[in-house]
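Input.
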Amino acid sequence: MSGSAGSYGTTDAVLTAYVTREFHATRNWTGTGWRILGEPELHLGRDVIVPDLAGWRRERLPRLPDEAYISMAPDGVCEVLSPSTSALHNPAARLTFVTTQ
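Output.
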């Protein structure tokens, strides 16, 4: 939900900056670490999901695919929920991430 106003947008931006800074690469920038993407389009089987933030260990995803989507389940995901958006993020979407590992 890019461009959202209010505390959701602020929380999403701060969280993305923090996680990217801390986990995107190791301290010595050797190319290991994580690939962190904001709102990536994930094609997991028949499901298309766009989490707020997703990350893959670089040994699993050494480079980004040429397609506009990623078909490999991430190693970690993050959703920023607010009272108004929590109803949109149903348990079935969370189960998709668990069962595709």
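Residues 6-23 form the longest helix (18 residues).
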